[in-house]
Amino acid sequence: KEKVEITKEQQALMKIITDAYNRHQIPQDVAKKLLQDQYSAEENFLLLTEMATSQVQVLVEFTKNIPGFLSLDREDQIALLKGSAVEAMFLRSAQVFSRKMPSGHTEVLEERIRKSGISEEFITPMFNFYKSIGELHMVQEEQALLTTVTILTPDRPYVKDQQAVERLQETMLDVLRKLCVLQHPQEPQYFARLLGRLTELRTLSHYHTEMLASWRMNDHKFTPLLCEIWDV
Ligand SMILES: CC(C)NC(=O)n1c(-c2ccccc2)cc2c1CN(S(=O)(=O)c1cccs1)CC2
Fold it and tell me: How far apart are the C-alpha atoms of 171 and 121, rounded to whole Å?
């Protein structure tokens, strides 16, 4: 049985990423709003727009703290952000949704998301994903590293120096793999399950493109930042 050990450097790397991940949370007031105002579909849509916009800002700030990210080609940095924005949004949503909330809050949250103009065909896979992430009971280091691995996906559109991104991603995957073994010793397949969620994420982001089309048909407005990052 190989002895898995996280090196000093890997420990430092994990601390930088986890601190950044925790520092760049969505302002609580936005999340709290979901639980306060009235319930019209329009109102719910606006709240989700606000939350998603704030999450993109959080994502950009978080990404700057990934060691090595700012040394990548500048255009590749943009390509990685645009290419991972939707997946990062779904991942963050799943983490927010599966977080322990005061009783009844999760139900209200679910209700508002269901009543925000998203068509039923997307609601089901979305909530299945939230549940499948929740069941993993990831520790915050795993959440931060999983988001980092998602951002550092080499085969996003328009990435020129894929090798450079691959090297960074492999560094993060190695730490994540060791962390999973140490955090879930009874479950040797845990790391593989985690990576399986990334495949599910890609499927969800295809749904997202269709979600946007259906919203735009009903003349829903997005913020300039969301239009920019989603190319709409
Ligand atoms: C935490 C943030 C990042 N989550 C979020 O904004 N959510 C959440 C969500 C899930 C769990 C807990 C709290 C919120 C559900 C949905 C979104 C956004 N999208 S969107 O980006 O397509 C959108 C933007 C504008 C109109 S629709 C639709 C679905």
Answer: 37
